[in-house]
Amino acid sequence: xxxxxxxxxxxxxxxMRKLAREVSSIIIDEYGTGAYxxxxxxxxxxQAFGCVLGYDWHSSGVTTVVTGVLKTALSAQEHGLVVCGxxxxxxxxxxxxxxxxxxxxxxxxxxxKTLTYTSKxxxxxxxxxxxxxxxxxxxxxxxxxxxxxxxxQQGMSAQGKSARRYHWLSDSTxxxxxxxxNATVCDTKRPNVLNMTATESEGTRKASVDLAKEPTRKLMxxxxxxxxxxxxxxxxxxxxxxxxxxxxxxSLDMPRNINWNALAHTYEMQPNNYEELLSQxxxxxxxxxxxxxxxxxxxxEKPSWQDPVKYSFAxxxxxxxxxxxxxxxxxxSIQILRETVEATRICDxxxxxxxxxxxxxxxxxxxxxxxxSTEKSDGFKT
Length: 382
Prior knowledge:
The structure is a single chain. Mean pLDDT is 80; it is low at 244-252, 314-323 and 364-382. By secondary structure, the protein is α+β, with helices and mostly antiparallel strands. The protein folds into two domains: 1-189 and 308-382, no CATH class; 199-299, no CATH class. Helix 1 packs across helix 2. It has helices at residues 10-31, 33-40, 43-52, 61-73, 76-79, 94-105, 109-129, 202-212, 216-226, 260-269, 274-279, 285-299, 327-343, 348-362, and strands at residues 81-87, 130-131, 135-144, 149-157, 162-169, 183-185, 194-195. The protein is elongated. A hairpin with a 4-residue loop joins strand 3 (135-144) and strand 4 (149-157). The strands form two sheets. A five-stranded antiparallel beta sheet has the order 1-3-4-5-6, sandwiched between helices. A two-stranded antiparallel ribbon has the order 2-7. The protein has 14 helices and seven strands.
C-alpha cells in the first residue's frame, strides 16, 4: 500500500465513526465478538470495511484510520470489545491501556500478563523476526470481554514509500515464532526477506538458541570469522559434500551493531526456545540476523528467504500474479458487509454512499447498488 501522510478530515472521521459503530454493533449482536475479530483478521474484509466507511482503499491510511475510528466507536460496555494502542507514540500506551481494559472486564493478574506479553511479542516478531525493510509504526490490539484478541499492525518502508499490514488472531495463533499470522498484506513481494517465522527456518531457530547459550566471547569470535572473506573462513566437512555444500548468501551479511550486552544477559538466562530468546530485552533485528548468519556458517542451517506476504490488492488479482484472488473469500466478505450496512440505523443517503464505495472497491464496472437490494454476491465477482 502506498505510504500516505497527513490526517483524515474531521468531517470524514465523524461519519466513519458513526457508520463503524452501527456496522460493528450489528455484526457483534448477530455473530459475537469472536466472529467480529475473525472478520478484522481477514484482509479482504478489513479492506472492504475501510472502503464502506468511505476511506481510500489503496492507501496506508486504511489501516491507521480504520483502527483509530474503531478505537473510539467501540466500547467495553456496549460491545464487549476494546481497542488498545494505535499509531506512533500511541502504540507505546498499549500496556497501560490493557490495564484499563482489565479493570473493565475483570481480568486476573495472569490474564493481564498474558495479554501484555502477547502485545509485545506480536510487535517484536513483525519488527525483528521478519526483516523485509518495514519498520513497525502502528499497533492496534483488540481485546474482547472473553479474553480473545486480534492484532492489526503496520510497518513502513521509508525508502520504498510503501506500507505492509500484519493481521493476527488468537484463535489461529498456535505459536508466536512459527507461521503465526492470519495474513500479511503488501503490494510488493520482495525477493530476499529474512523470515525467521517460516517453517523452513526451524533449524536456524534451534541453532540460534544454542548459540545464544554460548559465552559471549565465543560468539564475538565466530562473528569476526563471519566477516572474513569466504576463502579465509574456517572450513567444514560439508564443503566437501556436494549435495549439502554450504553456499554464501550475498544478502546475508554480519550486522555492525549486534547488542552484545543483550546476548550476555541472554547467556545468563539460558533460553529454552526461540520465543524466549526473542522476548529478551535488547534482542533486535541485528542480533537476530547475526545469530542466523553464524548458525548458517557453523551449523549449515539456512533460514528461509521467502517473503511471508500472502495478499495483495494493487496487483496480482485477476491475472493470477503472484497468485489468484480468493474469490469465494472476497465475495463472502462483501456480502456480509453489504447485508450489515443495509441493516444499520443510518439514513438511506449514507447507506447508498457506503454501498457505492463498496461497489467501486470490488468491481468498477458493476451496476449501482441500492439500499435493501436483493442482489446476491455473484454481482461482485471479478
